[in-house]
Predict the 3D structure of the following.
Amino acid sequence: MKATILLALTLCVGLFGQAAADDARPGAITVENAWARASATPTAGVYMTLKNDGEADRLLGVTTDRAASAQLHRTIQDGQVMRMRPVTGIDLPAHGRVTLQPGGLHLMLMGLKAPLKLGDSLPLTLHFQKAGEMAVTATVVRPGASGNPDNGPMMDHDHMMDHDRMMGHQQLMPGQ
Ligand SMILES: [Cu+2]
C-alpha cells in the first residue's frame, strides 16, 4: 500500500513537475530587478527583489565566478557613519518579499576579476536553505544609479548611504 502511494506520488511529480509540487518547490522564489552599478573598484554591491510565493526560506549565500568572494551584507548606522556588516542569512518570509537595496541588505562582491561595465550581465548563484541554488543575472547600470532604469520606478534616496562613500568599507576588506 505504502509503496503504491509512493509510486503514485513519484509519477505525479514526474508528470507535472513543479506545477504539482507544493510550496516547497524551488520555483516558489523569483528574483526581480537584479542590478549593480558600473564600477572599476574591486568591490560592488548587488541589489534585487526576492519574491517568495511559497513557504518561508532563507538566503544563505551567493557565489559568482566574477569575484574572489561574495557575502551577504547589511548596512547599519553607527553614530554618524554608515557601516556594512556581513550577515549569515537573509530571511524570506512565506508569501512575502525582501528588497536588497543601497543602504540596506545587499550582496557584496569582493575581489572582482574585471571592472563592472555598463550593460554587462553579471551571473550569480543564490543559495537558499530550502530552495537550493538559483541562477540569477544582474544588469550593470550606470555609476551612481539607485536602481535599474529598465525596471520601473526606482527609489531615488539614501545617497548618503552610497557604497562608494561608505566609511566602514575598508574594515571588511583588508588590503584595500
Ligand atoms: Cu556591502
DSSP finds two helices and ten strands in the chain. The two ends are 64 Å apart (CA to CA). The CA atoms of residues 85 and 172 lie 8 Å apart.
